Amino acid sequence: MSTRIISLFACAALLAFAHPVVAAAAPDLGTATLSWQPGPDTPQVALAIDKGFWTSRGLTVKTSPTATGREAFEAMIGGAVDYALMAELPPVIGAMQNQKFKVIATLSRYVGTRVVGTTAVDISNLKNLEGKKIGTTLGTNVDFQAYETLQAAGVKATMVNVAPPDMVPALQRGDIDAAFMFPQSYPLARKVLGDKFTEKRTPGYAATFVLVATTDELSKHPERAKALLAGLVDGDAVLAKDPAASAAVVSKAMGGMTPAPAIQGLWADYRFGILLDPALIDLFEREGNWLHNGNYVKGPAPTPGLFAGYVDPTFLRSVAPKNVTLK
What we know:
The chain is α/β, with parallel strands linked by helices. Helix content is 41%, strand content 19%. It contains 13 helices and eleven strands. The strands form two sheets. Strands 2-1-3-10-4-11 form a six-stranded mixed beta sheet, with helices on both faces. Helix 5 links the parallel strand 6 and strand 7. Helix 4 crosses helix 12, helix 6 runs parallel beside helix 7 and helix 9 packs across helix 10. The N terminus is likely disordered.
């Protein structure tokens, strides 16, 4: 080979190193709106924002808080937001009312549900609640928790409708013998009741936090949904790898209201994962039948296939196929 040819190859190699290939910029997917309340339930959102997992994919996500899951669902149905996060009950009701939406992922399950009481009644054996006055907030997921727990134990009790702020005082006064309350009230009950505080975990029902979207958003902007889910999957990986640092990110998103160590402690009762599995459909069907039989939702009984039709695995399957185990 001549010296001239060798020189040409050398020059080509130098040019290749001098001008590296530049990665293509992410497409501009526009802006998606998400109803989300910062807290320990769905840390993947805070992590996706903090780490830039959405912006790196060309997606801008604007979040807006709502006080309850029901309000988040109504905001989405009303067109105020494209996506919303909440526990599973509002979508179950929405499906029974033929609303236009789809569930596209679960983010977490809370497995720390319990019944709370005082030393006046030994709740370590649920049979002791037979004939007793049990407080709950009717028509909510804690009401459903109470229903499944007492039914499984074969216990018949008098259910008393108590608003969440009144639950602990009602226990303290002895107006009710035990309570199925929202988990946010567990620490208050422990503090107020002191040495009289008792609790029993209730395996079975797990509050399941889901991501829902309007059918209009999904049909018009499918790439947004994929990017949104991909960012949450990345957030899930960060959470699994470094829970302590992740808790600090969530604490910051909450304005420091709950310290990072406390958040990490709460996570012992959560099972995180951006997924869609048969357990979700099973829960929807159980709650749907409970709502119908209790006359909480008027209309015909839900059919077996109703709720499966409100879960769309297309988008999650496209970004994390192993996370979808639905048939």
